[in-house]
Amino acid sequence: MMEQSNSLLLNEEALKLCTDSRKPVFVYEWLRYLDRILPAAQKADIKSVQKKLIEQLTSRILAAPGPPTRELLAKCIAQVYSVGDTYSLFETINTCNDILKGRDDSPTHLPVKLAALRCLGAMYETLGRLVGRSYEESFHHMARWLKNAESQGRTELLYTFAKLVKGLGVGASSIHKDLYKILKTHMSDRVVMVRTAAINCLTLLIPVYPFLYTNEVESIGTLCFKALESSNYEVRHAVAQLFGALLCTAMNPPRRYMSGNRNQQNASSLKVVTIEDCFGILSHGFLRGGIGGFLKTGTVAVAGGQKEIRIGVALAYVALLRELGPLWLEKNLIFIIKHLMDVIAKCGPLAYTNNPIQAAEVVYMRRCIGYILRSTVGTILSEQAQIAVCKQLGTILADCINSFADYNLDPGNEKMLGPETYASAQTAIIILLEISCLVRQIGTAVTPLFTEASGIMEPVFACLLHPVQAARIAASWCLRCVTISVPSQLTPLIDRCVNRLEHMKSCGDAISGYSFALSALLVGSIQCKLGIPHAKSRLCFSIQKVKNLKRLKSTKKKSNKYN
């Protein structure tokens, strides 16, 4: 029986012979066959049966088909008009509009309206401007239905709006303003699938509606941060793509709006958003985590921000930088790195706390910044550009060292650590971890960075004395990764750490930092093909043995004194 469904026209006699439970399957198989055969069919073959075929297809709309059948039905109707003639196109559109116009919102009639909606979306997306101005009537009916629709209906309507925008582009400019008002309302819908559909539609609207990327950048940014509240992955991904399209277009407006005598007046009224403004919007949302404030005001990290918002903004950074491309990123590398380091440095006051929840929040923000760097610098740049990133990170790390250069290592003069120290620690940790990843990724090509006098070995090694323990651990890990890519540095670094331990044995931070480094280097030596001399490992353990004996004698003296 299924073989009889493989024909251009629906075999209605065979359909009547099917049981009620098999009829939907028969129709679905016929639509599957049409979907495969129509793109390859000759125009003459389609024209000979087009009138009957369109009648059969449009009649299936009233049969209340399910979601898979609706999708295939819409694709087939659009394909018929794309391959064949369009003489009955407006008649089909009017048929769908009449269905949408009906006020029957009962559950039994809903599949019929959804099928008509899906068919309209497919025709507008596939045929584009061939539909003329019929889209205005369709938009009117859809906007009216949207006011009272359930979540499924709202989602389908918004997806249809997106297809309309995608197919017609600037040709549908008469509805762009009203559509934007609708999308603003539904971007904060309580149902996440409706929210996602609205965001995706707005993403498609941005390139064809100049008002959005010239005057509404900050307003849309605020809407996006609100949409990220209590969001899931789909919403966060959609918001990231929206930010990428919006900010990229705002920084590089399409030439058709910026040049030419015809658009000279529009070109003079349009303004190009600066790089600083675009990244300032993202940093504000990341630091505040959706807690109050205006986008134009400077800010530091705020405790209690929503994780969903910060994850969404991190994804938005990645989407924007990928949208701008590797050439743009190489050209603006210094600005991007400094911007991200400035963002994480503003977490310093938040890290200056004894509250474990707040401290965990800072770690979470660090992970987000690390993800941004790994997903952009670590994936889309060339090897030479990545080496340049290492150099730039080393320069910023040297500046971080200056913030604790006056830290007194004398055990008798303890110094209270302030927010500035913790700010430098957050920056140092991010830099050290990214350098660790880059040197492992690049390999031996980074050797000059760590063997020449102008390299970055000194700033990395100096972080072993950072007053914040997390920075010392990050520096130790970085040295281990360096020695895996540059094996010739393993033994000299071990000697250097041993000598520093001998000369600075009265300083707790120095003992901690160099001990971390020694343990990292010794454990990492197994991954180094050159290995280390046996005497080096003996030397390290003998130092520890001597220290243990001294500590034991000191403990005995104290106990004898009190006894």
From TrEMBL:
<dbReference type="GO" id="GO:0016020">
    <property type="term" value="C:membrane"/>
</dbReference>
<dbReference type="GO" id="GO:0042147">
    <property type="term" value="P:retrograde transport, endosome to Golgi"/>
</dbReference>
<dbReference type="GO" id="GO:0005829">
    <property type="term" value="C:cytosol"/>
</dbReference>
<dbReference type="InterPro" id="IPR011989">
    <property type="entry name" value="ARM-like"/>
</dbReference>
<dbReference type="GO" id="GO:0030139">
    <property type="term" value="C:endocytic vesicle"/>
</dbReference>
<dbReference type="InterPro" id="IPR040108">
    <property type="entry name" value="Laa1/Sip1/HEATR5"/>
</dbReference>
<dbReference type="GO" id="GO:0005794">
    <property type="term" value="C:Golgi apparatus"/>
</dbReference>
<dbReference type="GO" id="GO:0006897">
    <property type="term" value="P:endocytosis"/>
</dbReference>
<dbReference type="InterPro" id="IPR016024">
    <property type="entry name" value="ARM-type_fold"/>
</dbReference>
<dbReference type="GO" id="GO:0008104">
    <property type="term" value="P:intracellular protein localization"/>
</dbReference>
<protein>
    <recommendedName>
        <fullName>HEAT repeat family protein</fullName>
    </recommendedName>
</protein>
